[in-house]
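Re: that backbone. Tokens:
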């Protein structure tokens, strides 16, 4: 990447002037065209000098507004001002940048955006830098290739002395912030081609977002082409990788990565163990998940509520809900209060096994009701528990378990089309003496 020969020269202008020295370029460009380019460049530089002299005054906006500068402003002249080494105050440049935008209809150049963003990052003004990069993407992404934005920032980064590489992190974060995850990942790949790599923190966050959005191709591209080639993964990288393998159903690879990180001197933390335990439970490896729980204790890592809830869910999926109940008792004994997820998982497990007695025993337990009501994620639903608990009219729930009551057909409204005013319904069978409280009877009626 060629550095500019002068203070003001943008990459485009520099290429134009360089062509003057090349005989092949002289054949393709007329003398008048080259002369016009030189004159335009000279005029922009002189105009920029005039603007810079006014920026030294506190009332520079008033001085410029009362002159002919607003009428003569153009993107190339503004670029010259921003690239001038004489102005060392990024806040002043930012104010001038915004003021100049309000004075002309033309968009700022890519180089202006990138130069300003780099300067702002160099003085740790990361918030304004994020705003400039967001504006840069919105202004130029449609008309410029993705590579052009990254290359422009790389050029400005090299042109400024002691530049802060955080500008590349902020670019990736900006893409993600505005919902352009694919562009964020592809920008990382372009940066790699230019010899730049975002921080491991930024890459870990990007990998995690790609995994959550199930962008499998980009996930492995970023991991294989950037992290494996240029950066040593840390515990967060390995944990994200294990989570990705589990999510994509490649549990053997998840185990391999877990073993590999230990061999490479990267010690798994509690989150790493919980991630693999969850993956094993989802894929039927409950026995191995319990081995990992024991291994956590040996390494003085504390199993938390997530660990226990995951194991309870794994047992219930294997129709071992009674073992899940014992595990929940163990959880309470060591002082870890179960949350609503753990309780409802166990209740659901009993129901799926046909053990309605234990399901209702748990659902009607005062202790469990108090725990559910105290949970901030569930309290609103539990206070109106009649919405999801059927009560038997005139009897306790437990008295009807062994009686095999006569069933009645009922119809539940699933959805209503506002245009046709027709409802989609589903048919269910319930004991004929069950009822739904009147205040929640909307959408449920006798067929």
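Recovered sequence:
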């Amino acid at each position: 990447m060629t550095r500019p020969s002068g203070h003001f020269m943008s990459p485009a202008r520099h290429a134009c002037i360089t062509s003057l020295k090349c005989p092949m370029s002289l054949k393709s460009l007329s003398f008048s065209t080259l002369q016009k380019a030189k004159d335009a460049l000279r005029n922009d530089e002189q105009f920029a000098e005039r603007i810079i002299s006014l920026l030294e005054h506190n009332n520079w906006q008033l001085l410029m507004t009362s002159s002919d500068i607003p009428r003569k402003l153009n993107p190339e002249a503004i670029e010259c001002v921003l690239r001038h080494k004489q102005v060392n105050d990024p806040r002043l440049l930012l104010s001038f940048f915004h003021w100049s935008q309000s004075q002309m209809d033309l968009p700022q150049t890519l180089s202006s955006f990138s130069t300003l963003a780099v300067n702002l990052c160099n003085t740790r003004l990361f918030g304004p830098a994020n705003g400039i990069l967001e504006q840069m993407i919105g202004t130029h992404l449609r008309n410029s290739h993705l590579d052009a934005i990254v290359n422009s920032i790389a050029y400005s980064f090299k042109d400024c002395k002691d530049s802060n590489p955080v500008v590349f992190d902020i670019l990736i974060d900006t893409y993600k912030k505005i919902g352009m995850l694919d562009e964020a990942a592809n920008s990382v790949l372009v940066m790699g081609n230019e010899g730049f790599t975002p921080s491991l923190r930024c890459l870990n966050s990007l990998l995690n977002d790609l995994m959550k959005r199930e962008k499998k191709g980009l996930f492995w591209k970023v991991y294989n082409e950037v992290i494996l080639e240029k950066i040593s993964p840390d515990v967060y990288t390995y944990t994200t990788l294990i989570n990705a393998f589990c999510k994509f159903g490649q549990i053997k690879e998840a185990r391999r990565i877990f073993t590999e990180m230990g061999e490479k001197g990267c010690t798994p933390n509690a989150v790493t163990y919980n991630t693999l335990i969850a993956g094993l439970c989802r894929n039927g490896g409950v026995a191995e998940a319990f081995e990992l729980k024991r291994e956590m204790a040996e390494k003085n890592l504390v199993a938390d509520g997530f660990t226990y809830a995951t194991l309870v869910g794994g047992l219930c999926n294997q129709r071992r809900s009674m073992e899940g109940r014992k595990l929940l008792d163990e959880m309470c004994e060591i002082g870890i209060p179960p949350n609503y997820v753990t309780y409802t998982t166990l209740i659901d497990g009993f129901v799926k096994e046909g053990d309605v007695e234990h399901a209702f025993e748990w659902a009607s337990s005062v202790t469990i009701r108090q725990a559910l009501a105290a949970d901030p994620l569930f309290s609103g639903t539990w206070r109106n528990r009649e919405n999801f608990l059927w009560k038997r009219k005139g009897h306790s729930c437990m008295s009807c378990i062994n009686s095999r009551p006569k069933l009645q057909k009922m119809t539940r409204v699933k959805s209503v089309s506002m245009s046709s005013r027709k409802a989609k319904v589903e048919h269910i069978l319930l004991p004929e003496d069950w009822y739904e409280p009147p205040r929640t009877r909307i959408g449920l009626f006798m067929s």
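Residues 1-12, 14-29, 375-447 have pLDDT under 50 and may be disordered. Strands lie at 391-392, 407-417, 422-431, 434-435, 444-446.
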